[in-house]
Amino acid sequence: MGWLSRWFRQDGATSPRPVELAPLDLSAFHFDFHSHLVPGVDDGAPDLDAAMEMIDGLVGLGYLGAVTTPHIMAGTYPNDRNTLEPAFAKLREAVFNKHPQFQLALGAEYFLDASLLEKVANGEDLLAPGGRLLFELAFGAPPEDGLLREFLFEVQVRGLQPVMAHIERYPYWHGELHRFGDFAEQGVWLQVNAASIVGAYGPEVQQAAETSIERGWVSLLGTDAHGMRHIDALAASRTHAMVHQLAKSAQNPTLF
Predict the structure, then answer these.
(1) 3-state secondary structure of 49
(2) Do residues 33 and 191 lie in contact, with contact meaning Cβ atoms separated by under 8 Å?
(3) Which phi and psi angles does 255 have, rounded to 5°?
(4) Which pLDDT belongs to residue 47?
(5) For residue 171, is it within any domain?
(6) What secondary structure does DSSP assign to 171-240, as a single string?
(7) pLDDT tens digits along 113-146
(8) What is the pLDDT of residue 80?
(9) Residue 136 belongs to some domain of the structure
(10) Which residue in 93, 99, 191, 216 is a FRET match for 240, CA 20 to 30 A apart?
């Protein structure tokens, strides 16, 4: 299905269109802090050409740079510095040759499990540019409260900034959105995907993203770019009122 299908629910009814404004200049966000641009290491860019097409899109939309965050997930994407840095070096060279002003840093999207907690507790050298550690949760079931609580404590006590990825995509918390307010008060940066705001994952996810932005809990807009469909979604999000609101309140940290 094409992107127009994002406006339709499975029962055939249309979801209300959000208020649309003049397209926002996305340079207001400066950098993208969630993407999968490193070629051939996860379910993101399969090769250098695909990665460069996405970066061309980011440059065209006004972005100054990106932290690219390949998956690190035990058993599925067992990446580490050794698997990621060689491929990232090739990408960085290609980007410098074509877009020398575009800054690129290597981070990771860590899956929260006991092994990640152990790495943090042991003080391992994690991929967290500028001290920002991006992590995701399982989509099917919530994490154990003790695991998440201890993880956030260990991250923060070591002077790192925890960043929770695509908060709107955890369906088990759609009826408990206040949890995100609690996380924000604890100092966790919360990130939403541009594709969610334009309805790509359905109306419930879209509503969770918009409500979280409206209540001031969200710190970062991210592409979560795996392919050009996510860059297209980012371009489409420029007319959405919640993206305009987030541009006024989002964190705009330096890249490194």
Answers:
(1) helix
(2) yes
(3) -70, -40
(4) 98
(5) yes
(6) GGGTT-THHHHHHHHTT-EEEEEHHHHTTTT-HHHHHHHHHHHHTT---EEE--BSSHHHHHHHHHGGGB
(7) 999 999 999 999 999 999 999 999 999 999 998 9
(8) 96
(9) yes
(10) 99
In this structure, the number of other CB atoms found within 10 A of the CB of residue 187 comes to 11
Contact present, 104 and 59 (Cβ < 8 Å): no
Using CA atoms, how far apart are residues 85 and 105, in angstroms rounded to an integer? 10
CATH of the domain at 62: 3.20.20.140
* Assigned domain for 2 exists: no
Quote the pLDDT of residue 145.
Answer: 87
d(C-alpha 192, C-alpha 215), whole Å: 13
| Residues 6+ positions from 52 with CB-CB distance below 8 Å | 94, 95, 98
Q: From the CB of residue 250, how many other CB atoms can be counted at a distance below 10 Å? A: 19
pLDDT in tens, 235-246: 999 999 999 999
User: How many angstroms separate the CA atoms of 150 and 114, rounded?
Assistant: 10
**Amino acid code (one letter) for 58:** L
Domain count, the chain: 1
Query: Which residue range is the domain that position 91 belongs to?
Result: 24-249
**Amino acid in the structure at residue 141:** A
